[in-house]
């Protein structure tokens, strides 16, 4: 097969989709030396550095998005994969789309521009209808596709992300005192959250729960890692309102080589998100041996299983009590640590690549058989 992949997300400042693109393509390179892959990149990207894949069957093409369809046709691509909800081009024998979550369909009021969101939804509906197969990153996302876009479940394949530290484990030996100096948090232990400032991440609920910890706040600082975007002012106001100015640190974007160190040195990871399509950060925490408390919503119970304490994210008092219980019980922390390390083994990027390759093959064979019948 000649497989084309819209790899543009991995050439941008990587969020979740960018890391998915990176790990999927590099894992495909490790497991498949028979099929031919062409990675397409929007030439308007400001980030020229992507994965270094030296496989004989991999190549890359810089092309403006508006010309990608023509270039894919010119390259005789047989299966095309859009990694981020869209199909900028089509394969001769079929096309595949990955859907990561439907957060803006669940929470349209969080979108800055109502009409822009409506247009995005219409474009997504069009792409979903034209794709031969849709890859959902969890059963929960698959159900959302059926619910919001009336996609037949028979057209959806669930392919989980890899587990473990999806970004980098090479720099976990970064010293805690370096993090203190570089990011400015105080000496001592800390509770960690990794994620952006979108309302669905429930930072405000986490702050309310943390404010209820009393004396524990003197021992455990709360560190929020990730860019807060346009919600920063609201979050800072809440920190001031709750009297947490000296107890909470927002690091902003953290360099890849430092993120794994934040995980390594944390005492507890808390992830009270209202909605996730998959939920990589708590798995990253588990891979580092950190006990995890997470919301009992959306895909998180599916992904984390019994390896995390699950709480109602809309009940700050219950979340605070769970935090207090875990921090005060070393036996419970050790059990969560062991369960987390075991749970992460259920997810790997190599398996994600194999399952994705199986989707390509099924689309190709179905189309090929149909052409023979005609």
Layout: helices, strands, pairs:
Elements: E1 2-6, H1 16-31, E2 36-42, E3 58-63, H2 65-74, E4 79-82, E5 94-99, H3 103-106, H4 114-130, E6 133-136, H5 139-149, E7 156-158, H6 176-183, E8 189-194, H7 203-211, H8 216-219, E9 220-225, H9 232-241, E10 248-252, H10 256-265, E11 268-271, H11 280-287, E12 292-295, H12 300-304, E13 309-311, H13 316-328, H14 330-344, H15 349-373
Parallel strand pairs: 1-2, 1-4, 2-3, 4-5, 5-6, 6-7, 8-9, 8-11, 9-10, 11-12, 12-13
Total helix count?
A: 15
Oligomer type: single chain
- Number of beta-strand segments: 13
CATH superfamily of the largest domain: Glycogen Phosphorylase B
Radius of gyration: 22 Å
- What is the CATH topology assignment of the largest domain? Rossmann fold
Short description:
With 374 residues, this protein is α/β, with parallel strands linked by helices. It has helices spanning 16-31, 65-74, 103-106, 114-130, 139-149, 176-183, 203-211, 216-219, 232-241, 256-265, 280-287, 300-304, 316-328, 330-344, 349-373; strands at 2-6, 36-42, 58-63, 79-82, 94-99, 133-136, 156-158, 189-194, 220-225, 248-252, 268-271, 292-295, 309-311.
């Amino acid at each position: 097969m000649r497989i084309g992949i819209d790899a543009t997300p991995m050439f941008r400042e990587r969020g979740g989709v960018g890391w998915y693109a990176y790990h999927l393509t590099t894992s495909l390179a490790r497991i498949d030396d028979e099929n031919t892959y062409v990675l397409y990149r929007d030439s308007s990207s400001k980030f020229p550095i992507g994965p270094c894949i030296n496989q004989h069957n991999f190549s890359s093409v810089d092309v403006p998005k508006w010309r990608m369809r023509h270039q894919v046709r010119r390259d005789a691509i047989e299966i095309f994969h859009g990694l981020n909800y869209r199909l900028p081009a089509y394969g001769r024998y079929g096309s595949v789309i990955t859907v990561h979550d439907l957060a803006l369909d669940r929470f349209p009021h969080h979108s800055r521009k109502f009409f822009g969101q409506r247009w995005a939804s219409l474009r997504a509906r069009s792409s979903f209808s034209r794709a031969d197969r849709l890859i959902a990153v969890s059963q929960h996302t698959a159900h959302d596709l059926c619910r919001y876009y009336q996609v037949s479940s028979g057209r959806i394949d669930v392919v989980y992300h890899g587990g473990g530290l999806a970004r980098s484990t090479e720099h976990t030996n970064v010293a805690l005192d370096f993090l203190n100096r570089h990011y400015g948090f105080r000496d001592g232990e800390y509770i960690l959250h990794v994620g952006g400032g979108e309302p669905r991440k429930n930072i405000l609920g986490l702050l309310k729960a943390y404010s209820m910890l009393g004396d524990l706040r003197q021992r455990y600082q709360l560190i929020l890692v990730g860019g807060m975007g346009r919600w920063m002012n609201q979050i800072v106001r809440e920190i001031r309102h709750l009297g947490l100015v000296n107890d909470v640190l927002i690091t902003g974007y953290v360099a890849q080589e430092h993120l794994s160190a934040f995980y390594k040195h944390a005492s507890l990871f808390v992830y009270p998100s209202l909605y996730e399509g998959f939920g990589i950060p708590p798995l990253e925490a588990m891979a580092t041996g950190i006990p995890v408390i997470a919301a009992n919503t959306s895909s998180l119970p599916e992904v984390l299983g019994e390896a995390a304490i699950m709480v109602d994210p809309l009940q700050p008092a219950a979340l605070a009590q769970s935090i207090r219980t875990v921090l005060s019980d070393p036996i419970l922390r050790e059990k969560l640590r062991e369960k987390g390390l075991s749970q992460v083994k259920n997810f790997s990027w190599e398996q994600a690549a194999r399952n994705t390759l199986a989707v390509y093959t099924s689309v190709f064979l179905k189309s090929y058989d149909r052409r023979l019948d005609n």
